[in-house]
Design brief:
186 residues, SMI1/KNR4-like, seven-stranded antiparallel sheet, two-stranded antiparallel sheet, 7 helices, 33% helix
Length: 186
């Protein structure tokens, strides 16, 4: 179960729950009611209020129509659910997005499996980053400085704690909006 070490940040208001209850999977709505927003998986995954990230998603992702941001990774990647229930991840650090599950239940199973978790989230450096820099706060992520797209190296030494929204904005300003889809063959 991916929620076993959930650390609550805030509750999600009834207005937000009502707004998305006919759009998002019932399982996710139940998580919102039970836990609210917060982090889990040793701080790597964050359940977010979609309304706080929908605007930046629209500004940064070419395929944003019918897509709802529901989670973030500690590397500033946004996990979304589309109108058919498909779960995607926008890897801002790499400049593309991928389908990671065909439904929410499958996503939860994959996220709870260490092999699949590593493949989906590309989180191999996370524990080393936490050891070197400490855990990120809820509004922060680890960002590569310099950005990978600008020649930065994918090393723990190049990771810095950065505000998530500002980091995404810098990536988009420097690299452009995310429009490429790549398979993460499992």
């Amino acid at each position: 179960m991916i929620y076993r070490d959930f650390h609550r940040e805030n509750e999600i208001g009834n207005d937000v729950i009502k707004k998305y209850s006919d759009i998002l999977p019932k399982e996710l709505i139940s998580i919102w009611k039970k836990y609210g927003t917060g982090s889990m998986m040793n701080g790597f995954l964050k359940v977010v209020n979609p309304d706080e990230y929908i605007e930046i998603l629209r500004e940064s992702f070419a395929d944003y129509e019918g897509v709802v941001p529901v989670m973030l990774t500690a590397f500033g990647d946004i996990i979304t659910i589309n109108s058919e229930g498909r779960v995607d991840i926008i890897y801002y650090r790499y400049g593309y997005y991928s389908v990671i599950a065909t439904g929410w239940e499958m996503f939860e199973v994959f996220a709870g499996d260490s092999f699949m978790n590593e493949r989906m989230f590309k989180n191999i450096l996370y524990n080393a980053a936490v050891e070197k820099h400490g855990r990120v706060e809820f509004e922060e992520c680890f960002g590569y400085v310099p950005l990978l797209a600008l020649g930065g190296n994918e090393t723990v030494d190049n990771l810095k704690k950065i505000k998530t929204k500002e980091h995404i904005e810098v990536i988009i300003e420097m690299v452009g909006i995310i429009s490429d889809m790549k398979s993460i063959i499992m």
